[in-house]
C-alpha cells in the first residue's frame, strides 16, 4: 500500500513535471489551470487525472479532438516509477552515500531525493526536445542542495569546491569549443551535481556521463541517426550519469581502486 501511494504521488508530480516541460521553454507562468496547447481551452479536473484521463479520452482533447502527445502519460509513468525507486533506496539504505545524507537530515532524505527527481526529469525532457536547460530549474536544484549543505556543515566547503571544479571544467570546454561542445546551461547544471556528490563521486559522475554520451553518440552515428560533429543535448547524459553514480557509484569506485 505504501509503494502504491508513492507511485500515485509520483504520477501527480509527473503531471507537474509536464507543466514545467511545456511552459518554461515558452517563458510562460506556472500559475493557472492547464489548457489544451491546440485550442487553448482550459482542461477540467476530471480530464486532468494523471495517466487515467489520457486513456479515457482516447488520446484526444475533449474540446477540439486534437491528439494528445504520448509524452504526457510517459512522463507521469516514469515519475511514478522514479518515486518508487527513490523510496526503495530510502528503505534499503545499503548505500553509504545515502546513509550519510540520512545521517544529516533524517527522514527528509526522501523528500530531498523526490524533489530532485522531479526537476531532473523535467530537465531531461526539455533538453532532449529543445536543447536548453532552463535557469529556473538549475537554480531550484542549487537552492535545495545548498539548504542540505548548510545543515550538513561538515561537508559544506568540500562539496562546494567539488561543484565549482565540475562547473569550471565544463566552462573550459565551452570556451575552448566556442559553445559548440558544451552549453552554458550544462555549466550551471553541473554546479548542482558537484555540490550534491562531493569528492570523489562528482568526478566519477562526469566520467560516467561523458562515457554514456560517447557510447550513445557512436551508436547514433552507426545507425545513421546522427553525423559526426553534430551537436546533441548533453543534459540527458548528465542525468543518466547522475543516477548511475547515485546507485552504483561507490561500487564502481571500489572496483576501480
Task: Give the tags.
257 residues; mainly alpha; 2 domains; globular
Describe the structure.
The structure is a single chain. The chain is mainly alpha-helical. It has two domains: 1-92, no CATH class; 95-107 and 119-257. The protein is built from ten helices and no strands. It has helices at 2-23, 52-56, 71-91, 96-105, 109-130, 135-151, 156-176, 184-197, 201-222, 235-256. The longest helix is centred in the N-terminal third of the chain and has 22 residues, at 2-23. The protein is globular and about 60 Å long.
Strand proportion, as a percent range, falls in under 5%
Total domain count: 2
Distance between the termini: 41 Å
Q: How many DSSP E strands?
A: 0
Quaternary state reads single chain
Largest sheet: none
- Mean of the pLDDT scores? 87
- Unreliable residue runs: none
Decide which structural class fits the backbone. mainly alpha
The amount of helix comes to 55-70%
Q: Which SSEs are present, and which pair or pack?
A:
Blueprint: H1 2-23, H2 52-56, H3 71-91, H4 96-105, H5 109-130, H6 135-151, H7 156-176, H8 184-197, H9 201-222, H10 235-256
Helix pairs in contact: 1-3, 1-5, 3-5, 5-6, 6-8, 7-8, 8-9, 8-10, 9-10
Kindly summarize this structure in a few lines.
The chain has 257 residues and is mainly α.
Amino acid at each position: 500500500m505504501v509503494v502504491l501511494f508513492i507511485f500515485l504521488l509520483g504520477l501527480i508530480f509527473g503531471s507537474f513535471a509536464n507543466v514545467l516541460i511545456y511552459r518554461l521553454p515558452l517563458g510562460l507562468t506556472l500559475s493557472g489551470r492547464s489548457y489544451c496547447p491546440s485550442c487553448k481551452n482550459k482542461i477540467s479536473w476530471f480530464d486532468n487525472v494523471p495517466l487515467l484521463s489520457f486513456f479515457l479520452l482516447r488520446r484526444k482533447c475533449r474540446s477540439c479532438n486534437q491528439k494528445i502527445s504520448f509524452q504526457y502519460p510517459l512522463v507521469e509513468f516514469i515519475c511514478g516509477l522514479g518515486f518508487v525507486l527513490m523510496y526503495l533506496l530510502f528503505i534499503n539504505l545499503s548505500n553509504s552515500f545515502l546513509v550519510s545524507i540520512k545521517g544529516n537530515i533524517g527522514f527528509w532524505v526522501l523528500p530531498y531525493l523526490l524533489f530532485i527527481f522531479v526537476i531532473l526529469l523535467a530537465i531531461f525532457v526539455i533538453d532532449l526536445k529543445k536543447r536548453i536547460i532552463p535557469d529556473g530549474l538549475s537554480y531550484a536544484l542549487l537552492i535545495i542542495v545548498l539548504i542540505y549543505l548548510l545543515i550538513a556543515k561538515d561537508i559544506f566547503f568540500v562539496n562546494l569546491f567539488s561543484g565549482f571544479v565540475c562547473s569550471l571544467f565544463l566552462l573550459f570546454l565551452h570556451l575552448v569549443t566556442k559553445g559548440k561542445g558544451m552549453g552554458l546551461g550544462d555549466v550551471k547544471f553541473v554546479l548542482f551535481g558537484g555540490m550534491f556528490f562531493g569528492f570523489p563521486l562528482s568526478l566519477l559522475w562526469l566520467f560516467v556521463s561523458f562515457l554514456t554520451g560517447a557510447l550513445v553518440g557512436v551508436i547514433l552515428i552507426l545507425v545513421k541517426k546522427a553525423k559526426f560533429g553534430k551537436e546533441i543535448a548533453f543534459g540527458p547524459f548528465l542525468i543518466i550519469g547522475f543516477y548511475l553514480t547515485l546507485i552504483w557509484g561507490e561500487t564502481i569506485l571500489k572496483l576501480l581502486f
